[in-house]
Amino acid sequence: MQKQVEYSDAIKTKYPEQVVIVIAKDQQGKANPVTLGWTMITSGNPPMMAIAVAKKHYSVQAINHSKCFTICYPSSEMSDAALFFGSKSGRDTDKLSEFKCNTEPAVKINSVLLSDAAANFECKLVSQAEAGDHFIFIGEIVCSHINTESKKRLYTIAPGHKLGSAS
User: Which DSSP string corresponds to 40-71?
Assistant: First the structure.
């Protein structure tokens, strides 16, 4: 049986929620990572994924400029990086200079990969839509990578930015 509650109460049942770090280069060529929770697969053929980015985030400008982005599935060891990338703005901070994180060049787009992530997906921007206070960006996956070591993924496991592995 269901009971009616406020949205703010019902949405708390979403945990664990996946975490991604999205990277796009800005007009100065600076790679700007941002931590996001809202992502999904939108197509299997061709492979496509979508991300939702708050309209106020600097990453919106970077994605619109570069027309591509990397979606990284951070490993459970990357919680400090995820918190840092999600709490600083690329307008004011060169996040990859301030928070040392292993990166490597993307293969098919003008971006970078996070070397310690469980997986990285190189995406070319194919569409975007306005959704309330967010933009939804849809990217076609043009190259995929997995870590050479077995890595558990990082998730938001409870409200208040509590991060960890889902198992």
Answer: EEEEETTEEEEEEEETTSHHHHHHHHHSEEEE
CA angle 30, 36, 41 (to 5 degrees): 105
- The model's pLDDT over 7-66, given as tens digits with 9 standing for 90+, comes to 999 988 888 999 999 999 999 999 999 999 999 999 999 999 999 999 999 999 999 999
Report field, pTM of the whole predicted structure over 0.85:
yes
12 CB-near residues (< 8 Å, 6+ apart)? 159
Maximum Cα–Cα distance for the chain, whole Å? 55
- Helices H / strands E in the chain, number of each: 4, 12
HEC profile of 83-129? HHHHHCCCCCCCHHHHCCCCEEECCCCCCEEECCCCEEEEEEEEEEE
Question: What is the Cα–Cα distance from 126 to 74, expressed in whole angstroms?
Answer: 24
Phi-psi region of 85 (alpha: psi -120 to 50; beta: other; left: phi over 0): alpha
Look up residue 53 and give its two tokens: 């980015």
